[in-house]
Structures are given as C-alpha cells and as structure tokens.
Design a protein that fits this description.
Elements: H1 2-39, H2 43-70, H3 73-92, H4 97-125, H5 131-156, H6 159-165, H7 170-175, H8 178-188, H9 195-200, H10 204-214, H11 217-233, H12 244-261, H13 265-278, H14 283-307, H15 313-337, H16 344-358, H17 360-370, H18 374-406, H19 408-429, H20 438-449
C-alpha cells in the first residue's frame, strides 16, 4: 500500500503543473481591466499583455524537449515550477507594462514547459493499468486551475478588496499563484528522476533503486527487465524524429494535438460571453454561464479519470468526438435560424464541454505521451505540444474575425467539420493502448510502422 501511495504521490505532484498551467492562462481575464485602467493601455499594448503568455508558451516548449533529454525530467520540471513562482512575483511587483509583459512571458515559459513535462513525467512513472487515469489527472488539474483563477479573481473583485488595494486589485490576483507554485516546489523535492531517463543515461543502479522505491519487488524487477531490454534494443541508435519508425506516431501526435484545439474548445471558454451576447443574452448572465461552463469542464473530466483505463482511450475518443460534432452542428443551426433564446444554446454548449472534457481534453495528452519510445519521447512530445500551442494562437486570432465577418453559425460548423475529420482520423489511425506498458507500445507503433 505504501508503494502504491508513493507512486500516486509522484503522479499527483506532477499534475500540479497542470493546475498552474490553468491558473496562469486564466488569471489575466480578471486582472486585465484594472491593469488597463491603471496604465491606460491602448489596443496594441492590451493585445501584447494578453498574447505575451502565449509567446512564452511557445518559447518554453521550444527548448523543453532538449532540456528534458539532457538534464532529466525532474530538473526540468523544477525549472518550470521556478518560472511560475518568478512570474507571480514579477507580475505582482510590476511597476510598468513592460515588467508585466515580462512576467507574463516568464509564466508562459512555465506553462509551455509544464505542458510537455507534467504528462510525460506521469506517463513514465504510472503503472500501465492506471496510466490513462494518472495522466487524466493532469487535464483535471488544468480545469481546476482555470476555475480557481475565476473564483480567486471574483473574491478579489469585491468592495472590501478594492478598498484595501484601491486601484491595484490586480496585484493580489497574480500573487495568489505564488502559493501553489511554492507548494509545487516543496512537493517536487521528494520526487525522484524518471527511471526510464536514468536507464537511457546508463544509470542502471539508480534506475533500479527508483523502481524499488515506487513498486513492489516483483513489479520493480519486471519493469526493470522491460526497460532494460528496450534500452539495449535502441543502444547506439540516434533516431531522429524523421526516422521511418517515428514518423507515423509523430503524425498521429501532431494531428491529435492540433485538432484538439480545432474543436473550438478555447473559442467557447474564452469567447463564451461574446457568443452568448450575440445570442441576445444579458452580459451579466453571460458571465454566469461562463462559470457554469468551467464547472462542467471540471466535473466531466472525472468521467475520463474513472473510465479511460477500463473503457479504453479509443472508444472514449469516438464517443466524445461524435458528441462534439453533433452539438457543434446544432449550435450552428440555432444561430443560423435565430433560435438562440431559451435554454437550448446553453444546454448544447454544456454538452459540448462535457464531451470534450471526457475525451479530447485528457485523452489527447494520454496518447501523445505514450506512443513514443523513451529515446525520442521528450523531443516528439515537445513538437506535438508546440503544434498544439500554435493551433491555440491560430484559433485565438481567427475566432474574433469569424464571429464578426462569417457569423457564429459558420464558426460552429467549421469546428464541427474539423472535429469530424478528427473522428475519422483517430478511428483509422489510433490503436487501443489501455493496459500496455510503454515498451509494449513501441512494438505497436514504432516496430509496426517499420
């Protein structure tokens, strides 16, 4: 029991990177207006303040694959935790817009690093029978982080808080992130390095010691043999991401990552109030509906946590994507026919969020972290995650244009078409991997594609 709790401790600790990811990306929503009022931001500087976090994400992802291979998974994730803490301090102490933007970039680097490292670290520690569940906790932590940021901002946006902080209520909004950042750093002090990375670096004895710390003696011996055999098979080979056996899983990972965002999830989460207002719903109610959407996002993720290892990745993806296509088509039809009043628009959006939360949200992270062999995993996952963040940027740029020029109906139908492609692609290309060890996964994807 103690061994199991040790393994769980490591995975739960790594998942806190997801919580900080969610909090950092959402906190700006409440801080933006008071910052804009205090510093008199024009449209360009406002855009820079918001998008600087995304720039940091792309920068963070760009070097994380190399760092994780060279200095290890654990040291790299500690750097990500330090970035979150530095971001909180820099933004809280910000005396100029430039300093705030610098703090947002630092936080974005932390988000980018965590988006690669946290699910990968969990993947390399979790037992095969619970790996899907453990990695799904990372996605759950992201949704909780977003919701915590909303609640934190709401608690600070009160007359009492405004009287205490006057016009600078945005400072404690950023400072709140320092608390989970410090907790993350303290908890990371008790987690070991990935045994698979240690084996790759030929630190066999240390890898065996780590396995014995987190597993029973029999499981540790079996895992050690499996990891060692895979390491020996790949010894002396410097495979690039364009190697024949790596190309297929890389294409699968990139498509899943990009089309996770092309489902329109961030359009609905971030532009939900604008969409509801276009439907003629009062702005105050629109913000309330946004909180409801965030809560449903958290609750529905528990479906993946509970069923991903027993029901299977592929089946949950197919069910979730089918629901996503169905709800997006109907949302578009409501806007096209002008029947956006009443409860149906909210009901359909909540169904969309629920379908995303138990399928595309967590399972995309599960799959792209388990289909690559250890010697290229960090680089390959970094490439997939980089493409995901580029897709986030594309959606962020084009959604306002789509809403104003093409209309909400066309936007929903475009996302429905992208999700239909994802459904067909994943049904044809993704293999069921529940219960498989990472070394068995290499035989399914890499050896098969050779």
């Amino acid at each position: 029991m103690q061994k199991i709790s040790r393994q769980s401790y490591i995975c739960y600790t790594a998942a806190i990177g997801g919580l900080l990811f969610g909090f950092d990306t959402a906190v700006i929503s409440g801080a933006l207006q008071p910052i804009k009022a205090q510093f008199g931001l024009n449209t360009i500087m406002e855009g820079w303040l918001v998008s600087s976090g995304l720039l940091g994400c792309i920068l963070g992802v760009a070097f994380t694959g190399m760092a994780a291979d060279r200095i290890g998974r654990r040291k790299s994730i500690v750097i990500a935790a330090v970035m979150f803490l530095l971001s909180a301090i820099t933004c809280t102490a910000g005396f100029s817009v430039s300093m705030l933007i610098a703090g947002r970039i630092i936080g974005g680097i932390g988000v980018g690093m965590a988006s690669v490292l946290s699910p990968m670290y969990i993947t390399e520690f979790a037992p095969a029978s619970k790996r899907g569940q453990m990695v799904s906790y990372y996605q759950l932590a992201i949704t909780v982080g977003i919701l915590l940021a909303y609640f934190s901002n709401a608690l600070l946006d009160t007359p009492a808080a405004q009287q205490l902080f006057q016009t600078e209520v945005w400072r404690p909004m950023f400072l709140v992130m320092a608390l989970p950042s410090l907790l993350f750093l303290l908890l990371l002090a008790r987690v070991p390095e990935s045994p698979r990375w240690l084996m790759r670096m030929r630190e066999k004895q240390e890898a065996a010691t780590v396995l014995q710390q987190v597993m029973s003696a029999e499981e540790a011996a079996q895992a050690y043999r499996s990891i060692e055999e895979a390491a020996q098979r790949n010894a002396g080979r410097r495979r690039s991401l364009l190697s024949p056996g790596i190309r297929l899983p890389l294409i699968i990972g990139i498509v899943l990552a990009v089309f996770q965002q092309f489902s329109g999830i961030n359009a609905i989460i971030y532009y939900g109030p604008s969409i509801f207002e276009k439907a003629g719903i009062d702005s105050k109610n629109a913000l309330l509906f946004q909180v409801i959407i965030g809560a449903v996002n958290v609750l529905a993720t528990f479906i993946a946590v509970r069923w991903v290892d027993s029901y299977g990745r592929k089946r949950l993806m197919q069910i979730g994507l089918s629901g996503i296509v169905f709800t997006l088509i109907l949302c578009g039809a409501l806007f096209y026919t002008g029947h956006t009043q009443g409860p149906w628009l909210l009901v359909l959006m909540l169904l969309f969020i629920a379908c995303f939360a138990f399928s595309l949200g967590p399972i995309t992270w599960v799959i792209i972290n388990e289909i690559f062999p250890t010697d290229v995993r960090a680089r390959a996952v970094a490439i997939c995650t980089l493409m995901l963040w580029i897709a986030v940027a594309m959606v962020g740029q084009f959604v306002p244009w789509l809403l104003s020029k093409a209309g909400a109906a066309s936007m929903f139908w475009l996302f429905a078409g992208c999700s239909l492609f994802n459904l067909l692609f994943s049904s044809a290309m993704v293999k069921e991997t529940r219960g498989k060890t990472l070394e068995e996964m290499e035989d399914m994807y890499v050896v098969a594609s050779n």
